[in-house]
Design goal:
This protein is α/β, with parallel strands linked by helices and 499 residues long. It contains 16 helices and 17 strands.
């Protein structure tokens, strides 16, 4: 029986990692519209695991109770198979999640094989549940049962919440772009890009998404054209506007030399290639909207930061400045260039807020360092509207702070997020710990203070859907701002497309 218990413990530990790391932290399934069916299956499976772990902890099923226990074990297999089908149809699983699922399937198969002789022996006994005490195993499996049982309740509750229809995306851009346009979007499979593509498609625009991995475009709002290389776009293709959002996440890991090279390449080289494409096109786009960041500016003071504020030396500034310099080269082709310097873009299903929320949801939210650093932020829907506004307004050129009008200090942000989730905010992550774990990235992203305001956007007359943090959190937490795929993908001649 010891081997059976060891395999069950492995199943519990690996499963807990999959739930926490993939379902909660990276994939954000509990906040994504369209994952209701998957979460419902997860809730049912977790409830079954709670029963399995309790039986392993304290009981032996004898007689006809063996048939009941076998039915529970078989139901887990059926639900897992159904989950595989649903996952494959609704989202692109990361490679790490596929590996974990394979390991769990093999482990569960071995667990059943070793458990079968015991079940056969127990079936010959008089019917009943015989209480047993397995020492530390009983304690461990009781903890597993409680944990997976609570997770079943959470998944069931969130499955109901995300079953509500997503907020429609088209109305975000229609007031600014009422007539159909042809728009090329780089980074269209990213956090901001997906919502932008959904909004443009929903408003009737023809969208081409440039991505090196066409699998990531599978669940975009449809119809779109998908290009896998700029060289595959014919010279006679016409784009009215180009939106450049491409770039690896600056928060994707400690800024090692290799990571910095990736960040530069994904931003600067992509922008340079985009300018070469514009030079090759027979008809040039009218406008290029290129993403930058408030990391362009200096840090660690309480002064308001406008587009005219000075910058400070640092990797984040150098990265932003280099990308903006490449984007401005489109001016030589008569293309109007707008650089949007984004702050933290907020939505519950991803981005910085999505990364923060699991800790806050489980009551482990914390302020960062002293908590006095200013955090410029912007709701995702306002980010999409600002891009459309920049496309539409022919008088807009140069840099614009893509932030809400009311930046907040980190301590206030943490308290507001905890309150919105009805949780306490009791902890502090000391600055030395952040420095030690994340180094330069921790200093420039988490501890830096930039009190950036959207001075030029407000002067141009842009109006925010969520001008306050409370409004942004309410909009983020009440309904997910995602759109599901709609139909098919169109193709340009010579351009790779997914159907």
């Amino acid at each position: 029986m010891t081997a059976v218990l060891i395999l069950a413990a492995i199943q519990g530990l690996v499963g807990a990692f999959d739930l926490a790391f993939h379902h909660e932290f990276t994939e954000r399934l509990t906040w994504k519209t369209g994952t209701g069916r998957e979460l419902g299956l997860h809730a049912a499976r977790n409830a079954l695991y709670a029963v399995i772990f309790l039986v392993l902890a304290w009981a032996e099923p004898h007689g006809w109770w063996v048939a009941v226990f076998v039915a529970v074990l078989a139901a887990e297999v059926a639900i897992t198979l159904a989950d595989f089908i649903v996952e494959d149809r609704t989202r692109l699983l990361p490679e790490s999640e596929r590996i974990i699922h394979t390991l769990l399937a093999v482990s569960y198969g071995a667990f059943l094989a070793l458990l079968t002789p015991h079940l056969v022996a127990w079936a010959s006994e008089p019917g009943g549940l015989v209480l047993v005490e397995r020492g530390l195993w009983s304690v461990l499996f009781t903890v597993f049962a409680l944990g997976v049982g609570l997770w079943a309740l959470r998944d069931a509750a969130r499955a109901r919440a995300v079953a509500s229809p997503a907020l429609p995306a088209g109305p975000l851009v229609t007031p600014f772009l009422p007539s159909p346009m042809r728009v090329l979007v780089t980074g269209g499979t990213g956090f901001i890009g997906r919502r932008l593509v959904a909004a443009l498609v929903g408003a009737g625009h023809h969208v081409t998404v440039l991505t090196r991995d066409p699998r990531k475009a599978r669940d975009l709002a449809m119809p779109v054209t998908v290009a896998t290389a700029m060289g595959s776009i014919p010279a006679d293709t016409i784009f009215d506007a180009v939106v450049n959002l491409a770039g690896a996440s600056v928060a994707g890991g400690r800024w090692s030399a290799r990571r910095k090279d990736l960040l530069r390449t994904s931003r600067i080289d992509t922008t340079r290639d985009l300018i070469h494409l514009m030079g090759r096109l027979e008809t040039r786009p009218r406008v290029l909207v290129s993403a930058s960041a408030t990391g362009f500016y200096g840090t660690d003071n309480d002064d308001l930061v406008s587009e005219e504020s000075p910058h400070a030396a640092g990797f984040a500034h150098d990265l932003c400045a280099a990308r903006e310099a490449e984007a401005r080269k489109a001016c030589r082709f008569g293309v109007r260039v707008v650089e949007l310097r984004f702050g933290l873009v907020l939505a519950a299903h991803g981005g910085p807020l999505g990364a923060m929320m699991p800790a806050f949801e489980f009551g482990l939210g914390a302020r960062l360092g002293c908590g006095r650093q200013w955090m410029p932020w912007l709701h995702l829907d306002d980010a999409v509207r600002m891009i459309a506004f920049a496309i539409a307004r022919e008088d807009l050129r140069g840099p614009f702070n893509a932030v809400a009008p009311q930046p907040v200090r980190n301590a206030d942000f943490s308290v507001a997020l905890a309150a919105a989730l009805h949780r306490p905010c009791l902890f502090t992550l000391p600055a030395p710990l952040i420095h030690g774990l994340l180094g330069e990235m921790g200093q420039e992203l988490l501890l830096a203070s930039r009190r950036a305001v959207p001075m030029r956007m407000q002067q141009a007359g842009f109006e925010f859907l969520a001008p306050t943090l409370e409004q942004a959190l309410e909009r983020s937490l009440t309904r997910s701002p995602q759109d599901a795929p709609a139909c098919s993908v169109d193709a340009l001649p010579g351009v790779h497309a997914i159907r």
